[in-house]
Specification:
Keywords: NAD, Oxidoreductase
Protein name: Phosphoglycerate dehydrogenase-like enzyme
Shape: elongated
Distance between the termini: 4 Å
CATH superfamily of the largest domain: NAD(P)-binding Rossmann-like Domain
CATH topology of the largest domain: Rossmann fold
Number of strands: 13
Largest sheet: 7 strands, parallel
GO molecular function: NAD binding; oxidoreductase activity
Strand order of the largest sheet: 8-7-6-9-10-11-12
Organism: Helcobacillus massiliensis
Mean pLDDT: 95
Number of helices: 9
CATH class of the largest domain: Alpha Beta
Structural class: alpha/beta
Order of helices and strands: EHEHEEEHHEHEEHEHEHEEHE
């Protein structure tokens, strides 16, 4: 996608916002109660007339995939952008929902690190077998690498640092990022991986990140815990299997998969060192969607770019 930079794009003034999807009615109610200064309409499954009425759309996935309409503003009711990326020529500005997702994903990562140290999964299986199988509790990890330094990655970093874990963030350029005391370029992260006890991927699903959790990355790990809360397309599953067998990864927590739901025949289900959750590390709340939309509308009213605007290239 090619977008104008915030400095060169002329201010836009959306006037008619169509809310779609399963949260549409509840988001509408929030915005109406707050007096958000924009005309609103909601439809779980929008009609052609709904779409022609709107100059802006919000939903998940993209509300008008088969049409030709163009919109001044599109908003994804998720932190992820992949469902909107194919339609970037159909809108001028894209915003997204962040809300409490950083805190939710931070708690998720924190909980699984503690579960790993406490051998929780082992005791669940032992209880199923009705066997008494004590294990020595592992010490808390000392170092973690978080791949992706956006709001989600920053939330994970804060949660891990609250456990006393030193966190290094990795992004494309190695630029400084809020929530991280240290960062490094993604393609030069190998020295940090060699010292990491935990690796968390909070990467978006892009061509650049596809398959990045692979043999090359795993070869730099030594008995690390892997957590993926980003996108399933980032993980080379065959590479993960080899890393587990080689002891470079001692456990993996997977919340996202390239195909969801995960196929019931996938080998991942039967691997005791892998823990699977059904894309629940953070869940969208209608009030968070509404707050992001309200904030964006007020920014447009001031002639400013919304703080949740995304620039894809």
């Amino acid at each position: 996608m090619t977008t104008s930079s915030p400095e060169t794009r002329a201010p836009i003034r959306p006037t008619r916002l169509l809310l779609t999807g399963r949260f549409a009615r509840r988001v509408h109610e929030h915005l109406e109660s707050w007096g958000t200064p924009i005309r609103l309409r909601h439809a779980a499954e929008p009609s052609a007339e709904d779409l022609s009425w709107a100059d802006s759309v919000a939903g998940w996935p993209f509300p008008d995939p088969d049409g030709t309409g163009r919109y001044v503003w599109a908003h994804t009711m998720s932190a992820g952008l992949d469902a909107f990326a194919p339609y970037t020529d159909r809108f001028e500005v894209l915003t997204r929902t962040i809300g409490t997702m950083p805190e939710q994903m931070g708690r998720y990562a924190q909980a699984w690190v503690l579960n790993h140290c406490l051998h929780t999964a082992h005791y669940v299986r032992a209880q199923d077998r009705r066997t008494w199988e004590p294990r020595r509790t592992a010490p808390l990890p000392e170092r973690a690498v978080v791949l992706g330094t956006g709001p989600i990655g920053a939330g994970v970093a804060r949660a891990l640092e609250s456990l006393g874990i030193a966190v290094v963030g990795a992004n494309r350029s190695g630029r400084d990022a809020d929530g991280f005391s240290r960062t490094a370029p993604l393609r030069q992260i190998h020295p940090e991986l060699e010292r990491a006890d935990v690796v968390v991927s909070a990467l978006p699903g892009t061509e650049e990140t596809a398959g990045i959790l692979n043999d090359d990355l795993f070869s730099h790990l030594d008995e690390a815990l892997l957590i993926n809360v980003g996108r399933g397309v980032s993980l080379d599953e065959a590479g993960l299997r080899r890393a587990l067998d080689a002891g470079r990864v001692t456990g993996a927590v997977l919340d996202v998969f390239e195909t969801e739901p995960l196929d019931e025949d996938s080998w991942l289900w039967g691997e005791e060192r892998i823990h699977i959750t059904p894309h629940i590390s953070a869940q969208t709340r209608p009030v968070d969607i509404a707050a992001a939309l309200h904030e964006a509308v007020l920014a447009f009213e001031r002639g400013e770019e919304p703080p949740t605007a995304v620039h894809l290239a």
